[in-house]
Amino acid sequence: MTLSDTALIPAGTGDTTAAPGPGAGTGAGTGTKQGRGGQRLYALDGLRLLAALSVLFFHYLSRGGEASDAWGQPSREILPSVTPFTDYGWLGVEFFFLISGFVICMSAWGRGLGQFFRSRITRLYPAYWAAIVLLSVATAVFPVLAHRPDVHRVLLNLTMLHEPLGTPAVSGVFWSLWVELRFYLLFALVVWRGVTYRSTVAFCCLWTVGTVITHAANDRLLNNLLVPTYSAYFIAGIGFYLIHRFGSHAMAWGIVGVSWLIAQETVLAETERFSKIIHADLSGGVASAVVTACFVVMAGVALGWFRHLNWRRLTFAGTLTYPLYLVHESLGHLMIYGLHDHLSPATTVAATTVAMLVLAWLLHVLAEKPLARRLKRTLERPLPSSGIGRRANAQPPS
Fold first, then answer.
1. CA 210, CA 225: separation in Å to the nearest integer?
2. Could you give the angle at the alpha carbon of 180 between the alpha carbons of 169 and 26, nearest 5°?
3. Segment 317-342, tens digit of pLDDT
4. Residues near 118 by beta carbon (within 8 Å), at least 6 away in sequence
């Protein structure tokens, strides 16, 4: 082993194989099952729900479009005292990506490529399919805020490949799933080679360099492949997991630090974009501060600041997050449309939020869990043999 090899590995990690470690074995549920020492990282479950709620309130009280149509007036005028906070709720998606980098690295440790893809498919698609069916039916029955989606559009949405093919999404929030899918495909290269400290660090460094080159070249192919607007969050999440698993080390902290610097740059451009979307003068300084706070919180998770936060109800919060994210926008706006003439704005928002949480739980219990079990059993079945080998070795007929 050369000096350059050992420089990548913290002392005492023994990172010579991709054997399962304490971060392996994460199920297809919340994706936050175990951390160092086999302890469940309950804090991540709570943080994911917090991120989802921040996006929810942004869509209900700050975002125009469907939100304004639902209220019958500009949504930012409904509760103006809270809009200085909800205006930055879109940053919850960036926080999702930061957590995702941590969780995916943790859940992929010690897994093969087949296990990795099976776990991601059973995690992403069951709730997503159920949400598309529910949203399509709701839009068909109550076409007041959106047009009825045609069959081709719905079917293509089921694949989660509608965005690169230029087909409109059934719900606006689905755009982030294509970002997640590209991260999974990129990280699959690490899983294919074997997830070790060295391979993970090399992946982070190469992706960071690719991100910088993409920004400089402004190449469409690289931009679609390397996701430069959000890559820093995934990379930082991976760096935080390396710190959590192996302890503080200059290389892992360097990955996090460079990713934070890149995120500070990309979030400024995103702030300008969202200023135009919601017709408000958003502050790049505030957005940068929020992103920095997200990094600090994840540093706390990595360093074990929240290890005593073992409220088991946070696990329940984690199960609600994904279904809530999928259905809150379209169905929430539909509910606001029906309630706002009869209730006060604050009561309407509160009732809609509670209803979406209950719906998320029902979606998880009645659709996501049973579908995930069936899909998992299907994917774990051995592939049928072609029989070519048997025919080649068979004795010729007498």
1. 10
2. 130
3. 889 999 999 999 999 999 999 999 99
4. 376, 379, 380
Backbone angles phi, psi at 280, to 5 degrees: -145, 155
Instruction: State the greatest distance between any 2 C-alpha atoms of the chain, in Å, as a whole number.
Output: 90
pLDDT digits (tens, 9 = 90+) for 142-161: 877 777 778 899 999 999 99
Instruction: Give pTM, 2 decimals.
Output: 0.87
CB 92 within 8 A of CB 52: yes
Alpha-carbon gap, residue 18 to 184, rounded angstroms: 18
Give the 3-state secondary structure percentages of the chain, helix then strand then coil, rounded to 5: 70, 0, 30
Q: Which two tokens stand for residue 306?
A: 């929240």
How far is 175 from 141, CA to CA, in rounded Å?
24
Q: 94-124, pLDDT tens digit by residue?
A: 999 999 999 999 999 999 999 999 999 999 9
Sequence-distant (≥ 6) Cβ neighbours of residue 397 within 8 angstroms: none
Count the neighbouring beta carbons within 10 Å of the beta carbon of residue 348.
23
Measured distance CA(90)–CA(67) in Å, rounded = 14
Residues, the chain, total? 398
